[in-house]
Amino acid sequence: MQFSSEFTQYQLYPKLPEGNWQILCLNLKQIGGRYFFDLLLADAVRHKVIPVLLNQCKLSENEVAVQEIVFDSLLAAWDQPLLNELCQQACSLIDRVLTDNQTIDWHPHIVFTELKNQFPLFNEMSNNNHHRRAVMGLENYSNGLKPIAMYQGVKQIINQLKNYPIAILDCACGSGAGSLILGSNQEHQVTGVDMDRDAVEFANLINTYDHVKFVQSNLADLAGTGQFDVAVSLETMEHVADPDGFLSNLLSTLKDDGIIIMSLPEARFHGMEYNSDHLTNWTGHKVKKFFSKYFTHYRFLVMECRDVNDPFHYALVAEEDVDKWQIENYFIVADKKDLKPKINTNQLSRKPLKILFVAHNIYPLEKSGVPIVTYNEATALQKKGHQVAVIITQAAGQAEKFRSDGILTYNIPPLDYVERFLDDFFLNRRQYLATIEAIINDFQPDIVHINNLLFISPKVMQLFSDYGIKIVREMHDIVEFCFRGFPTVDSPFSVRNETGLEMCRGPAPEKCSKCVLPQKHIANDKQSIKVKAFVTGKFFARLNYLNYLYDHVVDALVFMCDSWKNYVHQFIRGNQREYVIPLGLAGEKQATGGLYPQGKVPNFVYIGSISSLKGVDLLCQAFQDQNVLTEGFTLNIYGQVREQYLEEMVNGLVQFAGGKVNCHGPFGAEDLPAIMQSADIGIVPSYFETYCLTVREFLSWGKPVIAAATYGIKDIIQHDVNGMLFPVGNWQKLREQVTRLLKDRELLERLRVGAMNTKVATLAEQIAQLEQVYYEVLGHETV
Length: 783
Hints:
alpha/beta, eight-stranded mixed β-sheet, 30 strands
């Protein structure tokens, strides 16, 4: 039997009390080729238990028997007969563990003695430790030694700041080890509080001090008492849904000159994804941002993650002394006297923001809806003095950083949308998210403005939130919800009826599984049940996870119109901050007055991509009619061909119409004024839209529109007032409206007047409203 002080710093007591101590439990582990054992020693008469950690043993060459016991030097003061008895008992128990286990590693290998019958709490705790309290003596060293090192560091901080007798609150004290460490200075009065009955009972079991007490309670019960000099709360606030309220309650337990010492875990290691009882995620960036709201200054320390095979070197250190990717815990030391005064934020001036957009691409790299909108918003915000950047998903290899038409652009590789859609929720995205983290650290945004999530994991929203960054989601589409990206004509849930085509009304798990799995892939009924259940379960997980993100992570939802908002709310529960902000057009309204010239042949204009979703097939069918062609008109089609069969349909119509229909191919922004000036009526036959800037572009030039009554269009087109509506997917009704217009020139004139009198939002109006949203969600953090 030998003694060693190598690990005495990890003991809970500076010295052990005398008593009739016997071994209640032994926990054997092997770390780096060395064998360690923890003891729980019990005095059944006094009903007390004391943990003695990191004792060592040396085994025989074949590792089947104990050759030597090395107790911690804490035990050296006890009587020799007691030590001899403990040594013999330890050897016997270690032999039992070695016999029962083929190999000994860093995991706990625990054996109890018959004394366990006198301490029924251990039976209860083994079956009910839902708070995952660290119970000293029963843990592996990664879980057991780190809390000790944390409290040892906290004790040193307290000794530096308060060198006189004080009252200390240990909030969420768990099984009490930390409170005992803080109570090693017998001049201090320590109160450990926890809501877990079993944890408090164990804490009282190992408490041998009169100046340390444990109470089963919660922080709210102590709020406002103002009785403590120091309030300690380690690894607690991640378990509450209202961190601001928690901090407020904790501060209210302090005297006016009191201090708080808190720790929070890094989400990369201890996020909600890995811990079922965590309600918030934290990163260093978010921790600093949170406490900077309340304190003029504070002390910030960190603790590194340690390998399970080297758990003996935990320490509180300065952030700059460690690799930031290895930081596992963050510590805040703050003085109540350094609290910022409460401010009416409405009276404060607004400072320029750093705004990070997320979209699959940006104009001029792609000339389509979301990229154009993102470009317009970004450039307009830059002109107003804000710093702007955008994440796009077009990189062929490594992520890259460049400027695109004056906008700072981070281009990352796209996720394989088809392969990863169903599995994304279940996959560990740590490496992928590291790319986004690097962008966050480089740009350091105040706001993330997400225009769509095409080719990017929705988990980025949780990551932005973990960094304390406010998220505004402008709902241009539902690509994160729908495997197809949007409702399509060929979806089994897009149904034709007597009036037209009713597009799929949004995702639901069982419905989506049928949409993804065509019957041709199902061999028999058994396979059908099995595969549908499997896919339905994955859709259930994804859709519910997305709703969680929109409920708890996204700070504001922005819709462009009411009809689209109502559609989305069929499968998104909603958000406490929702706004309807129409997308605006750059420049002033271009419409001019004057009567329609007598004898002028009306010119119908289609502008947009030649694609199925835009209803080009309906356009061709409506005009491919001899009765229509007897009327005087022209139809000019402008756009990039996206689908080959539609190019053939358009070319067929051009040939059939004998000069009345022309297709001009792609167009640029510089061509738009001439196209609009030449138009008399716009045609927008889309199967599905979420807003439709094209309709508003026509109206801004005073041009009425014949359009499908889909989302975003029916919000601004009033039938027979500033345009004409027809049921989605119904080319016969489109032809009917065209014929009406050609036969009734007075109707055309009325529609022109209605179009010129239609209010179309400007980009300046939209940006002013977006800025208001940004400042509202930021509150007083940016003023």
